[in-house]
Design brief:
This protein is an alpha+beta fold. It has helices at residues 19-28, 30-34, 63-70, 73-81, and strands at residues 6-13, 39-46, 53-60, 91-95. Helices cover 32% and strands 29% of the residues. It has a four-stranded antiparallel beta sheet. The mean pLDDT is 96.
Length: 99
């Protein structure tokens, strides 16, 4: 049996007049994140019914590698730019796959 992975769902809401700017910022972290050690899946979704609503769906090899990701330069730089673009901080939830 393979080692269980860590699943993450992270949501952010943009201010209505900042949707394009937040989307651009979030897209800018996709490529460097996908190259990180331990990143299995890293997807960004935008809600069709509410374009201010963005969701990352992620899969990581381990919690330790996720922590490295969260502390990486490109993520820390992006977090600093969220003020004025996002309504609040990211809602980051960690999950284990049950079935």
């Amino acid at each position: 049996m393979s080692k269980p992975t860590l699943r993450v769902v992270a949501r952010l809401a943009a201010f209505p007049d900042k949707v394009a700017e937040l989307k651009s910022l979030l897209l800018s972290i996709m490529e460097p994140t996908r190259k990180e050690k331990g990143c299995i899946k890293y997807e960004l979704l935008q809600n069709q019914a509410d374009p201010t609503d963005f969701t990352f769906v992620e899969e990581w090899e381990s919690a330790d590698l996720l922590e490295l990701h969260l502390g990486s330069t490109h993520i820390q730089d992006a977090v600093k730019k969220l003020d004025g673009l996002a309504v609040g901080p990211p809602d980051i939830r960690r999950y284990e796959l049950l079935a």
